[in-house]
Specification:
Length: 168
Amino acid sequence: MNALTHSFDPAQDNSREFRDALGRFGTGVTIITCDAGDGPLGITANSFASVSLDPPLVLWSPAKSSSRYPFFMAADHFAIHVVGAEQAGLCTAFARNGDAFDQFDWETGDHNVPLLNGCLSRFECTKVAEHDGGDHSIVIARVRRVTTREGDPLLFYSGRYGGFTAAT
């Protein structure tokens, strides 16, 4: 067994080291979309998780420092898109620019929520709660509709996108 090679108190001035340590947890990649009032808005996020099957609840955690934060916190309806391995361009575009919709296939759903087409799974959601989470907020939503397809996921690990290889 490998021993830990570095230990530290994350409450001290080690925010980069803490972020790097958190990056050792591989996650899927999502694009969250909402109607910002003056048009569609999107953001790339890996802070997505299931909460409950009954009722069907999910969560995501927007960063308070994001210029898009106020729009997502004001949105009662939004969609979470789980991105496929071939869709890294989608993630990069929405990480940089919240209105990159003209580059991709999308449509308008209920409550004027922008829906990106072709993702592995899409969850159309209604916000039911929000909680303080330090420098993020935790948004809990009820899933109203799911659209899904087969395919390989795009993963995020140590600041990079990659794919999935099954263990043998």
